[in-house]
Amino acid sequence: MMRNELNELAAFAMVARERSFTRAAAKLGVSQSALSHTIRGLEQRLELRLLARTTKSVAPTAAGSALLQDLSPALEQIAEALHRAQSVRHRPAGRLRIVMSRSAAVMVMLPRLASFAEAYPDVVLDVVTVTGPVDLVAGEFDAGIQLGEYIQKDMIAVRVSPDLRLAVVGSPGYFSSRSIPREPKDLDDHRCITLRLPGGPYRWEFERGRKSVTIGVNGPLVIDDTHLVIQAALAGVGLGLVYEEQVAEDIADGRLVRVLEDWTPPIPGFFMYYPSRHHQPAALSALVNALRAKPAPR
User: Fold this and answer.
1) C-alpha separations of 283 from 92, 112, 290 in Å
2) Environment class of residue 7 by beta-carbon count within 10 Å: exposed (0-12), middle (13-18) or buried (19+)?
3) Are 225 and 147 in contact (CB under 8 A)?
4) What is the per-residue pLDDT across 119-166, written as a single tens digit (0 to 9) for each?
5) Closest CA to 61 of 293, 69, 132
6) Pairwise CA distance, residues 274 & 108, whole Å
7) Whole-angstrom distance, CA of residue 202 vs CA of residue 82
8) Spatial strand order in the sheet of 200-201
9) Bridge-based pairing state of the strands 257-259 and 123-129
10) What predicted TM-score, i.e. pTM, was given to this entire model?
11) CB 243 within 8 A of CB 164
12) Cα–Cα dist 164/244, whole Å
């Protein structure tokens, strides 16, 4: 009902300003007969004659002039609001709500954030970090970053990282009195740091050749952040399962020892995902292009 009333009032204002059904119909992109029908309907509903018509001219009545004076500021504000809304479609600006794990934020977002902020100063990234998959629509997010295996099939997904590998690591101090695990089943004899996901503790997954193994590990600590897993492993609390990239320097410098490396093949990396390509805001397109992973050199 509100939309019909707005259309009627906008049509009346156009005729009153143009003082011509012909010119007003052309600007509105409707037929003269349809425009006349709209104005008659408005006058009947208001029980007021708004336009005086002759065969040669059209002019607002006193009631029509008063209505036009009251309407003009509101219609101008609506037009400006629509223009601002449309500009978001063509110019990167405004706020984007993005959801991702803290690991994705550190590994994908932060390395490219400074250059993005420099290139698009009118875009604000409102980043929420979570553990586990999220329903974008229910959470009112514009997009998310997640491991490819967890993204729903009806989402548009764009790769934003190369494939990743997991790494089982522990401190030299931890291994000083314990044997090195050679197979996943050996983890039963070790303290493991468990990552908590929304659906429950993460079960460690391993694969070598055609053999796949899933282990429900146990240990003294359950936490919901891989960066805390790393800190706990460095402190000698137990073994942690984290992304190889996150601990590469710690392994190279001897602060952590990697085990079961031949049981951790590459997994699909991070992807940026969002519901639809239709009417995509320019800010989201700019972010996708900024984060898009470059193809690996051949």
Assistant:
1) 4, 15, 11
2) middle
3) no
4) 999 999 999 998 877 888 888 899 999 998 888 888 899 999 999 999
5) 69
6) 16
7) 47
8) 200-201, 193-197, 221-223
9) unpaired
10) 0.68
11) yes
12) 7
The token pair at 219 is 């240990």
CA 51 centroid distance within chain: 50
Question: And the tokens for 283?
Answer: 């800010």
Buried b (16+ CB within 10 A) or exposed e, 59-79: ebeeebeebbeeeeeeeeeee
Extract the tokens encoding 230.
Answer: 């790393």
For residue 154, the SS3 value is coil
Burial class of residue 142 in the structure, from the number of CB atoms within 10 Å of its CB (0-12 exposed, 13-18 middle, 19+ buried): buried
> How large a percentage of the chain has pLDDT more than 70?
92
For 86, the token pair is 């449309």
CB-count burial class (<10 Å; 0-12, 13-18, 19+) for 115 = exposed
Cross-strand pairs, 208: 211
Contact indicator for 101, 263 with CB cutoff of 8 Å: no
> What does each C-alpha distance from 253 to 33, 80, 172, 248 come to in angstroms?
81, 59, 11, 9
Which single residue is written with the structure tokens 């193809």? 295
